[in-house]
Amino acid sequence: MTVAEKIRPLYESIKTQLPDSMESDILYDRTIAINSSIHEVIKTIGEATLIVLVVILMFIGSFRAILIPILAIPISLIGVLMLLQSFNFSINLMTLLALILAIGLVVDDAIVVLENIDRHIKAGETPFRAAIIGTREIAVPVISMTIALIAVYSPMALMGGITGTLFKEFALTLAGAVFISGVVALTLSPMMSSKLLKSNAKPTWMEERVEHTLGKVNRVYEYMLDLVMLNRKSMLAFAVVIFSTLPFLFNSLSSELTPNEDKGAFIAIGNAPSSVNVDYIQNAMQPYMKNVMETPEVSFGMSIAGAPTSNSSLNIITLKDWKERSRKQSAIMNEINEKAKSIPEVSVSAFNIPEIDTGEQGAPVSIVLKTAQDYKSLANTAEKFLSAMKASGKFIYTNLDLSYDTAQMTISVDKEKAGTYGITMQQISNTLGSFLSGATVTRVDVDGRAYKVISQVKRDDRLSPESFQNYYLTASNGQSVPLSSVISMKLETQPTSLPRFSQLNSAEISAVPMPGTSSGDAIAWLQQQANDNLPQGYTYDFKSEARQLVQEGNALTTTFILAVVIIFLVLAIQFESIRDPMVIMISVPLAVSGALVSLNILSFFSIAGTTLNIYSQVGLITLVGLITKHGILMCEVAKEEQLNYGKTRIEAITHAAKVRLRPILMTTAAMVAGLIPLLYATGAGAVSRFSIGIVIVAGLSIGTIFTLFVLPVVYSYVATEHKPLPVFDENKTTH
């Protein structure tokens, strides 16, 4: 952004210095989409804060009490901004997205502390005494929840590759916000509770309505939980069914590196036979560009013939501002691609500008076939592979960079006959040079500038091999000898280039997946096809965005597993048990199943962003930390009930679930409410924000409902049986 801001005035000053016959315009400015995304995210932060405030008010009902959790938002965000500055991080899309998630996260701990203090006040304690007792009771769970969430993001901050670079600042921003919110919840929140909350105060109308509604919810939950605990085996069987569906839910989703965004611009590449020249490409692309510019939503377009290869055309099309058009970029591209089918001279396809810059130009999916065998056999194998791709119906556009279709003329000189005429090889070389490529014969100076003088036959007189019959050489006796009498010509086909990849002969096939076919599905098909049909001695690799997906696709899966392991170890230390953390972690697959079911349903209706991409996977990682907080709250109370009151596991967890219902519902509602603006996001970057938002909202909502019923059942079977602490009798003495 800074570089672009400094370049613009320089560009304007250069533009004024151009000759009148020249025009200049900015072909594509990526910062427009970035700047629009940043403004949308900042607006979303404000919306999320307002919604969270309203939701907390609905659960608490007191304007005085609501100040306690709400104050955690500005304090935590200001603290995070100070951390960003100390780490020399910038305000970018990822850090701003982290701040949106932080709004719901930072109020969680304060809500838990507030609810516990308020419960003691209603039990008859003074606000000051309730603040001390309530905070002391809830301190360990709050610390555990804070450490668990930080542990979730720590593996993400240590990731390598492009994904690691992209999400490092995101992870550290959220980890910093969680840490600060935990400190605020255990220090500022109790102090404010002792000052703002009143004992024996007459409840307001809103507080009465809130208490009445939540009382009904509590009674319904208690009734349903009692039924569940009487039928524990049925609920356990239900949980097993959910766990068994996870592999199917994962495999049924399409995958891609990043979702297709409406960036306000896209690329189209046109390919013609390799034997044609730049003029042919330029003329052939004119009908295509005419169709493009007639599209109402298109603002600007430029076609560059001869790029990125000599027989292709690179076209960059810029759309009008998001507010000035009703159709999304994908619909516009589909319409233009349909019109391109009517142009027989070239094969053209439009595709999105990659969200992550891989440093390579070209189509989003590129497979490279490699072998040590000769190029002829490689070309035949590549052609068969290309035919299979076209027949699969998964690709709207394909192009092979190795093909024996370029006409090549081999000219041989009859030295013996040339010697008979007294014609030297230099004469023949100069004549052929003038005919084929032109030669510099001298230089001339005009107004202090040196210009080359190039001798070359007029273009119309050198368009076919037969033109050689019209040119003559001067023999030693002064006679004119036809050039064709001393040379012979052989026309054959050769590839335009002989590409190499990883020190092997290679052929690259570039492709654009059909609408409805994700990059991950296309790559999986290519891998299967290559593994099954490539001859012995052939290997394959990927380039461009496909290479990043293959290399980085499993990185976040590994990070997800590592996050689960780290949280488990943290909880094992906290609870001094292996079995209690196992109970708490049972909520993870419950929440993940909820997220995956939602993605599959929305994917069925072709909703953008409902694939397994880096944003949805980050949402799943975040979900691990969020959902385990519920289990920590319940299991900590259940443990204390067993230690202090000698209750059985069933009695302890049933009591804990009923006591912790309200803070669980409040924290879930606050987090979900804070992410609602992501679900109806529009403009640049909207699909990525929706992708991470829908995973967390659906996973947390469904996972919370499942956890409230499944976790108590699992606890009753698996959790550690904590024995009551021995009571010291002062009347007994030992002799």
TrEMBL record:
Gene3D superfamilies listed in its UniProt record: Multidrug efflux transporter AcrB pore domain (3.30.70.1430), Multidrug efflux transporter AcrB pore domain like (3.30.70.1320), Multidrug efflux transporter AcrB TolC docking domain, DN and DC subdomains (3.30.2090.10), Multidrug efflux transporter AcrB transmembrane domain (1.20.1640.10)
Q: Where in the cell is it found?
A: Cell inner membrane
Domain of life, source organism: Bacteria
- The principal localisation class reads membrane
KW Lyase (keyword) present: no
- InterPro entries recorded: AcrB_DN_DC_subdom, Acrflvin-R
Kindly list the residue ranges recorded as spanning the membrane: 93-117, 138-158, 170-188, 555-575, 582-608, 614-638, 659-680, 692-715
Pfam families per record: ACR_tran
A Gene Ontology molecular function term of the record: xenobiotic transmembrane transporter activity
Q: How does it sit in the membrane?
A: Multi-pass membrane protein
Matching PANTHER family: BLR2861 PROTEIN, PTHR32063
Q: What is this protein called?
A: Multidrug efflux system protein
Q: Which organism is it from?
A: Haemophilus influenzae
